[in-house]
Amino acid sequence: MRTAELTESGRFRVVEKETPSIQSGMEVLIRIERAGICGSDMQYYTAGGIGDARVEYPYTMGHECAGSVADIGSRVTRVGVGDRIAVDPTVSCGQCDQCREGRVHTCRNIQFLGSPGELPGCMSDYIIMPESCCFPIGDSMSLEQAVIAEPLAIGIYSVKSGGALAGAKAAVLGAGPIGLSVLLAAKTAGAAKVYVSEKLPYRLEAALHAGADFGVNPDERDAAAVLNTIEKDQLDVVYECCGKQEALDQGVEMLKPGGKLVIVGIPKGDEVSFPIHRLRRKEITVVNVRRQCGCTREAIDLIASGGAAVDFMATHTFPLDEVAQGFNLVSTYGDGVIKAMIDLREGHQND
User: Fold this and answer.
1) What's the mean pLDDT in 124-134?
2) How many Cβ atoms are within 10 Å of 257's Cβ, its own excluded?
3) From the centroid of its chain, how far is CA 115?
4) Full residue range of the structural domain in which residue 215 is found
């Protein structure tokens, strides 16, 4: 099979490797047909890691994927050969204290696709995953939609982490694929208003088309001052989705006393800071979000029902042998890119 390997910061090679084989009765051999490029992938690509999770080269990245079932273990009943599936990239042990508490995303023995020291990523023709990570999709769902179910699941979990949202007023800071997913999930959850802050004009426009009630470019206007003028009593919840210190600061200023700051973005540095006395006096609750915590099925169903229109996010597609071009495009925010994907089907021509 073909595999795209990162050999050093910013450099790929496509190599031939032996196709993995099923080793247990609960495993599924998946033929990957689409793989998405995520913001966390970009940190591995440009900086060689996130915090203390460091890449060892050569490294196969990628965790957003969809494809078809090529083979199944003897005890698999959830999917059959030929089924089209979306993939939850989290493999949890099911036995530790975190799993028993329903926190599979913080499993003590977690294995995550494309995470350094855990599982090889999905930028390969085939991968092996347990049955529990494989979710059949209907014939009407596109591969692109199935890939976007992964970031949408993060959006759904982020909104759940922020608490009851029906009738609430919220802001999303950063309108990349994760921020847009949070926006869609918040609107679905019944938020009365969802405001968006985004520096890239084309992404701000995409957020407005996706249902944002108002948008502001923080490079052009003071986002906190603008939203505090619109909402005199300030906001119930702010979702920080870009990993920037200035967005955290703005979020604190936008929130009403007793509000919640939900940190979804992944900072490039090891530390962030808070204006502790502002945080204390307003009694702001700070909530961290890690991945999607079992929301994959919900995301798939939301897309399938038409409750979340996600097609606009899939802007670019590249064949596997042009994986470097895809990553370069995303790293430079070129050509209006929102979500770039790798098409692993033979004979594909770049869109």
Assistant:
1) 96
2) 10
3) 14
4) 152-288
